[in-house]
């Protein structure tokens, strides 16, 4: 029978899991690579998700999906690809809708700028969402490509949960500032 479990950090890439068994009264240590160990969200992370969800008026599940890159757990959890697609197309629509009086060439430039990675990364950084993003890419920082995809997925999530008008207001306030 399992009595208790302790996890202790080893070097940079290893965790040691100590398991004490009641029947044999022995403790076994198992070394596990950090990359292969997937733990559920901590209470702090869950509170952070709920706080951000309240800020954007989204359900925690949809927000978590919007913040989850397809690399997380090798794509075996719901990720933000569909929300990102919806968000990217919505951004194009809102760019045209908010600039109806422009000519075709100017509209094309506005559409390109709406989904431009640099612009979306700047908006992502302004919102301070990096610690909430779920991805497993090399390095400690979230890449600019993932940041821009998360911003598009957030637009898609707002559109999905709250509708066209709420998404338009969200885009006006957070993307087109």
UniProtKB/TrEMBL annotation:
Gene3D superfamilies: Ribonuclease III domain. It comes from the Eukaryota. Coiled coil: none annotated. Residues 61-176 form the RNase III domain. CDD domains: RIBOc (cd00593). One of its GO terms (biological process) is mitochondrial translation. One of its GO terms (molecular function) is structural constituent of ribosome. GO terms for cellular component: mitochondrial large ribosomal subunit. PANTHER family: 54S RIBOSOMAL PROTEIN L15, MITOCHONDRIAL, LARGE RIBOSOMAL SUBUNIT PROTEIN ML57. This is RNase III domain-containing protein.
